[in-house]
Amino acid sequence: MNKDAPPPSNPQPADDSRGPLPDEPDLIARSQRGETAAFNELVLRYRQRAFAMIYQMVRHEDDAWDLTQDGFLKAWKNLRHFRGQSQFFTWLYRILMNVTIDWLRRKQVQGETEFDDAVGLQHIEPASTTTPKGEMAPAARLSDKEIRGRIDEAVQKLSPEHREVVVLREIEGLEYQEIAERIEIPLGSVMSRLFYARKKLQTLLRDVYETL
Amino acid sequence: MKPSESDFDFEAKFTAWLDGQLEAGQIPAFEDEMRAKGFDPALERAAHQATCNLFRSQAEAPLLGNPDFFQHQLLHRIEQSENEGKPARAVAAPESRSWFTFPRMLWGAAASLAVAAALFKGFIPTSGAMDQSPYFATIVDARVYDPNVSVDTVYNSRDNVTVVWLDGLDYVANIVQ
Prior knowledge:
The complex is a heterodimer of chains A (212) and B (177). Chain A is mainly α and 212 residues long. Chain A has helices at 24-32, 36-58, 61-78, 88-109, 144-156, 160-171, 176-183, 187-204, 206-210. Chains A and B meet through helix 2, helix 3, helix 5, helix 6 and helix 8 of A and helix 1, helix 3 and helix 4 of B.
């Protein structure tokens, strides 16, 4: 058990916090038969959670809105493949993330963003060069908006794979094993990706947390 | 550069160490390994904490905007996608059901031509009938300058007879002899 597991920092609003209710298998079965009303109910249940997760990946509200739509549409088209071997949300999550990661990759190909995955341990800066250096003058302090902007920029520099693990761990508060199952990669890869994602964030945000 | 297996192991242990998931017996040895690689355990933990606090402080996602429109638009797109699935069947079907196929149009055109030919043969007077009438030839050859004289002809194909209706002449000059 992970005693240091972070608490989820993104509480879900009422309409999506109901979790899997007893009628969910029925809604899924009806949706699989083509009943849009039943699928509509599933969307109502999970739309905020889906949107929040995609938002954490893309850090842009409008893009997250569109991608959530695309994700649910893709889920509808693939619903017949859902066999109930996992939770519905786990299955839905994989679809949403695939849509999001594909989109991020397309953006990369179009030259809008650049991820640097080709980093080895020897290129990682020790914390001695990234540790806060004490209190800054008040004039140098950043506003919340500026801090958010800097975090958005830093996250956008992470590769989609690194973003995903860091979001699942630091924001969703999942255990390594849960992350491994969710994104279908070995446990060791989860931990390695987390190492690089955290280190990269640490380097990119060093000057920000130095001012706080 | 691709990380080696020992790097991979170090990264995994580093992550577990940061999250307090490394077994107590492994911690001293791992911290020594960290120092050997240039990482200061205390500073690493402090930096990680500072980064995580900062990251989580701004991690709250906004609420989904325009949720009703979201729902409406999604259903609309679902309907569209359902209809998009049908054209593959629908496109081929109308073509096979349509009356206006090329062979039918060809047959229709041929049949129309045949009917037109039959009607022409049945109702339009032929030149042979006119040649057989001396009176007709006489009238056609006659030159009359009186504006009160008029002539009409009616051809009866069944009896092969042309009725010539003259108005304004007392007789037809017989010049055919």
